[in-house]
Amino acid sequence: MYQEKLALYDKLVDMCPRFERKGKSMPYTSANGYMFSLLNKNGELGIRFSREIQEKYLKEFDTTLFKSYGAVMKGYILITESLLENPDTLCRLLNESYDYVMSLEPK
To answer: Which of 3, 12, 29, 85 is buried deepest, with most CB atoms within 10 A?
Structure first.
């Protein structure tokens, strides 16, 4: 199950040429000093957005806040199973998240 989600995540990130996957045991993407997507040990994907966009997507995608290792990840939404079946939408969301972290003060 986890390996399938990891393969899906890798394929998704490969669709987005502006950034690459990092991390060996905890796959993630980051830019400008900020992590903006993460695949947790349960094979759940979280993507980070601004507060307004996060609230919009929580409703639009009928999802919840993303948790990793028992902690709620600030700004992240949990990507639902149905969203995982739509790589084009996920690529758009990842690129939107990338643009968001690039708009922040560099760390």
So the answer is: 29
